Amino acid sequence: MKLVVVLMMTTVVAVGARDPELTTDFAVPVGMNASMITGDFFKFTGLRDFSAAPSTFGSKKVTHIEFPALTGLGVGVTLLEYKPNTLNPPHTHPRGSELIYVLAGHLDVGLIDSANKLYSAHLHEGDLFVFPQNLVHFQINMSKKKTVRAISAFGSSNAGTISLPRNIFGSGIEDELDADVGHVPTRRTVLPVMEF
Fold first, then answer.
1. What is the pLDDT of residues 4-58, one digit of tens each?
2. Known SMART domains for this protein (predicted)?
3. What's the rounded Cα separation, in Å, for the pair 150 and 99?
């Protein structure tokens, strides 16, 4: 009986993690008259001037919040810029798979499956790589001089992002564990290993 309840709950959670299905051609925002919608409703200009701060990894996401025309369509996009020697740290997307396309430069990427196996690749301009939904993955620009630009498409209008370093080390868990089991690695002792 317990197994049946667990399976039912898992199914409900999995179904609830998807974008809602549309019963019309597209979603009309609340308070907007559908007859007043023009082609501009389907256009987004917010990526034109994006640039990451110097010496950092930066991203500009476009979800149904920034671009209401995406509501219910099951797609989202993020423009990514990796300054030299920068990392998009290990993270997951709980509500959608990611397909990354390298626009300029070379990018090292990796994902870790549920059996804890690492799959990595070196991407060139024009290459694609897919990160299956909810698997831990990362990207690194190993170049000391060149910036990398990429665009990621998602199988959700709001794929969500769970950044492992921020969620683990920003949660206070290291203090709780330290009190319970003694010394545990902290952000200061783990992250320097990841720096280049």
1. 444 444 444 444 456 667 778 899 988 899 999 999 999 999 999 999 988 899 9
2. Cupin_1
3. 10
pTM, full prediction: 0.75
Residue 127's domain spans which residues? 2-160
What residues contact residue 48 under an 8 Å CB cut-off, 6+ apart?
A: none
The C-alpha atoms of residue 47 and residue 27 are separated, in whole angstroms, by: 22
The answer as to whether 9 is a domain residue is yes
Would residue 45 count as lying in a domain? yes
Q: Return the structure tokens found at 95.
A: 């509500």
64 assigned ligand-binding residue: no
Q: Is 98 annotated as a binding residue?
A: yes
Q: How many domains is the chain built from?
A: 1
106 known ligand binder: no
For residue 83, is it within any domain?
A: yes
Q: Does 178 reside within a domain?
A: no
d(CA 87, CA 140): 4
Contact 97, 154 (CB under 8 A): yes
Span 146-196, pLDDT tens digits:
999 999 999 998 899 998 877 777 766 666 655 555 555 554 444 444 443
Name the CA dihedral angle for 40, 67, 80, 167, rounded to a multiple of 10 degrees.
170
What CATH number is attached to the domain comprising 88? 2.60.120.10
Q: Is 176 annotated for ligand binding?
A: no
Q: Are 111 and 98 in contact (CB under 8 A)?
A: no
**88 annotated as a binding-site residue:** yes
